[in-house]
From TrEMBL:
Protein name: Uncharacterized protein
Amino acid sequence: MQLKKRIQKILVQATLDGLDDDFTATAILFWLEWDTCLELTGNGWFDDDNETNLSINECDTSIDKFKSFLERAGVAKW
């Protein structure tokens, strides 16, 4: 599946779930991180600033929330 199509699926699911733009953007970054195994900074996320560190918490609850959303969107399975 092409990148554009996967991002479109994420956007559609976020709309169906009534999620805000911040969650949607974070979900896209989360998906890219997990799908491509990128580790571009010390914490594994694209941007190593406080806002990013707070928006993507690596605790199980936060990870499970994004995994569940991305499965519903049909772009990832764990």
